[in-house]
Amino acid sequence: MHYMLQFRENPDERAKPNDPAQVGAYWGSWQAYIGALAQSGVMVGGNVLRPPETATTLRVENGTRQVVDGPFADTKEQLAGFVILDLPDLDAALEWAARAPCATGGSVEVRPVLPPPGA
Amino acid sequence: MDDARRDTAAQATLAARESYGKLLAILAARTRDVAGAEDALADAFAAALAQWPTGGVPANPVGWLLTVARRSAGHAAARRQTAERGAALVQMLEDERNDPASDGFGDDRLKLMFACTHPAIGADAQAPLMLQTVLGLDAARIAASFLVAPASMGQRLVRAKRRIRDAGIAFAIPEAKDIPERLSAVLSAIYAAYGTAWDDVTGADPRLAGLADEAIWLARLTVQLAPDQPEALGLLALMLHCEARRVARRGPDGAFVPLRDQDVSSWSHDMMVEAEAALRAASRSARPGRFQTEAAIQSLHAQSRMTGERLDGPLVQLYDVLARFAPTTGVLAARAVALAENGEAEAALQQLDAITDAETYQPWWAARARILWLCGQDEAAREAASRAAGLSSDPGIRRFLLAGGYQEGLRR
């Protein structure tokens, strides 16, 4: 079964890559985590995203394009990346979610991927 | 909430914590219906919260709760009028009335623990079920402690309770010849609960707060109820030795501090004294076992740190004994590290590589990092440390590993 893990970071966590004292530990943690995922053979895919300030959101209302700077919702926790994992069950997904560096500086949302019709 | 009400709530909470398992055990012992007993008990606690603030706290709060819960169980049975379940509860009330010893709580809690760890109940439900029934923890909190989805933990608990009722699992102390084996399931369940709390090395997770204390409480209770069982004493000694070091396990900035660097003066002297006494009491029966051996290992670690003397040889011997009792991945990995610390790093690496299915087991990778450093294979050690960091859910341990923590104190 495929699960999507959405990594969300709070403002403190997002500040780490810009702090010379913390940037090493920050990327080191993510590298170790993604490395462990890849080497365990559960990774289907995934990406790290640029910070939420770089987001652009578009809506079409009455035929007009509304383009806004910034992410969909201006909340404290922002999406920082995601992975799709192939795992036996939710409990296994939660175990991987708990290992994500942002689990203590934000949250990890775990969602089962809807299988394609007929699968 | 005014003071009187707050005070009453506090008293009801205290009564709940201290007597929940007792009351549930008494209520469920005859019907084997844990879920029904829980409902009745919940009614009784609700009634207490409603009545005690105005009517005052009764002289015997536990007796009061039991009476109300029994009445509620009786009402529930009458309401349902389903022959099977109702009859069982009515029978329970009848038995309870006719049982002259029913006011003494006896060993009902131990019976409840044995029922929760019956081999017919799935191993993954035993520890959670015991926490819920004996301590009254709710399913969401237990799910968080064991890192599973609350809904699946809820289902697991419901299934387990249904099995107790439908399979007719007895609320009884097993026969003498079966006690050691059945008790070991009880002890394993308690240890699983403690291990969950222990993994939260920084104490950062509020969902786990108090879980270690509760596990120790259950172990003390087991020792009290089964005083002639050396493994129960061994488990208590083991957990007390670990708990004594809780404060010393982290630095002021939340950093992980390994045993070798811990400030010995911050260890709890009282807990260590109690642990040593329990271990001595256990050894008097000359029936060694897994938990006594693990406690002896922790005792040796403590002694080594207190005196500064390296006890690597005796540690390897104890780990060999432990591996015979419990050849788990964790024990085998720890034994390999002990061997490496004793100067046989290459042999230790072979032992470690012989362990299978450790691909995502964090302690195996941490052990590998330490052993590789002791072998002088720095590059491979760093890779193993990185893998262990990626598999850790604790920021302090992650930082420690990525900073080359297990490289310290090498004796090459």
Describe the protein.
The complex is a heterodimer of chains A (119) and B (412). By secondary structure, chain A is an alpha+beta fold. In chain A, 27% of the residues lie in helices and 35% in strands. Chain A contains 3 helices and 6 strands; from the N terminus they run βααββββαβ. Chain A has helices at 11-15, 23-39, 90-99; strands at residues 2-9, 43-48, 56-61, 64-69, 78-86, 106-112. In chain A, strands 2-5-1-6 form a 4-stranded antiparallel β-sheet. A two-stranded antiparallel ribbon of chain A has the order 3-4. The model of chain A has no long low-confidence stretch (mean pLDDT 92). With 412 residues, chain B is mainly α. Chain B has 19 helices and no strands. In chain B, α2 (34-55) packs across α3 (61-80), α13 packs antiparallel against α14 (312-325) and α15 (329-341) runs parallel beside α17 (362-375). Chain B has helices at 3-31, 34-55, 61-80, 83-98, 108-116, 123-135, 139-145, 150-166, 179-199, 211-225, 230-244, 269-283, 290-307, 312-325, 329-341, 345-353, 362-375, 378-390, 395-402. At the A-B interface, α2 and α3 of A face α18 and α19 of B.
Overview in brief:
By secondary structure, chain A is α+β, with helices and mostly antiparallel strands.
